[in-house]
């Protein structure tokens, strides 16, 4: 086997592959790709391009396999990876801890109602015959006097369930101290990317290299896109699969979902010590 915690030497600027120093563990459809792409601007960050799924799917392949999936780094660079399903993988906290108990964890969260719609929109883009969002998120429809419909939220439907952030957070905090997990506000990652990225860089112990001058708001896309002021590369946005337009959802269904999430959101605010102020 390999000594996971052995010191690595970098003779003459040699580059080596390391296990990750930091992980983006979730949450699916909250802006995890944006966070990773923004971080990759930083010269001291090297990250695996695609999701590695080591702690959920490929753990049996071992740490040597995992390390080989990482990009090469030179001295002073940190190694990262993002796989959003780690957030809800029950065995992940223990496994991540076994790799490195002082690893830094990042998770992006956003209003669970928009997250659910985003998740649904992604599925519908692959399966156009998918029923309406309202009919999947809510059950027990009784169309009657006053049109009372969709009385109960289907908490077992994936897109709904994944927005209950409190329980997975508790699992991660059983294994890691609160200070080792940075929660990133997904709404602010869109409205104030540079400010949110300042927090991220501080947390990772990086110099604040990513700043306002790296972002511009692309009004066609409706999202911040990237500029690389010091290079000749052209401005670019995330791909077409990020920032899709969402279908119109019946406001009654939205209200039901808000009521459903309210107590879970409260518990999440308590556990995390942050009031995200979701409606
Ligand atoms: P939508 O496509 O539903 O709008 P993830 O990368 O975790 O799958 O999250 C995708 C979501 O990231 C998008 O969901 C979008 O809302 C959000 N996002 C945040 N910043 C973005 C950016 N700069 N460009 C595109 N999408 C961004």
From TrEMBL:
Residues 20-262 form the Sulfotransferase domain. Signal peptide: none annotated. The keyword Kinase does not apply. It comes from the Eukaryota. Keywords: Glycoprotein, Membrane, Transferase, Transmembrane, Transmembrane helix. The keyword Transcription does not apply. This is Sulfotransferase domain-containing protein. It comes from Chilo suppressalis. The lineage of its organism: Eukaryota, Metazoa, Ecdysozoa, Arthropoda, Hexapoda.
